[in-house]
Specification:
Rossmann fold, 4 helices, 12 strands, metal-binding, ATP-binding
Length: about 180
């Protein structure tokens, strides 16, 4: 009997977490600089980044270098899209849902460019997240209102031959790793 989509995603996550852990231990090389260079063309546009957890690749340097407002995701509850609270270097942070740090206070911003964390990605531009659907719901809503770019940020080692997808999965516009930038049409 064929494995269900849920089982295939769970297996892909297990393999990707192991690959990400090994890549994290090796270091991220020039990935943050590559990300900052790519984001320079987005100057002035509201940007959403994230506060890296565990073995995630860290976008903090690129977020700090962005010329424009920067926010980080706040989880409001299961099944809801993310909101983004404005972040600046030195902002007072507190633990949010799932242990991710969020600014203790600040304005809400609506990003036009999102640096998206992920567990795995593939050459088609699809990502495998943690399974809550937060970024897919958020991107769907933002893209319904305006052009919104989603750039995955990951280690090369997180690439899979094919990420299992479903109709609600949102495709990335680009993926940035320690070896460069890949754009998706």
């Amino acid at each position: 009997m064929a494995a269900s989509l849920t089982e295939r995603k769970a297996e892909a996550r297990r393999a990707a977490f192991a690959a990400r852990k090994a890549a994290f231990e090796a270091g991220q090389g020039q990935a943050a600089e590559i990300l900052a260079d790519w984001l320079a063309a987005q100057a002035g546009r509201p940007l959403a980044g994230y506060m890296a957890m565990r073995t995630e690749i860290d976008p903090l340097a690129a977020m700090a270098a962005h010329q424009g407002p920067v926010g980080v995701p706040v989880i409001l509850g299961p099944g809801q899209p993310l909101k983004f609270r404005e972040w600046t270097p030195g902002a007072v942070m507190e633990a949010g849902s799932f242990g991710a740090f969020i600014p203790a206070e600040g304005a809400w911003i609506e990003p036009e460019v999102l640096i998206v964390p992920l567990v795995a990605f593939d050459a088609r531009g699809y990502r495998l997240g943690y399974g809550g659907g937060f970024y897919d719901r958020t991107l769907e809503g933002l893209r319904a209102r305006r052009l919104t770019l989603a750039v995955g940020f990951a280690f090369d080692a997180q690439e899979l031959p094919e990420v299992p997808i479903e109709p609600t999965d949102q495709r990335l516009d680009a993926i940035i790793t320690e070896s460069g930038v890949r754009l998706f049409d």
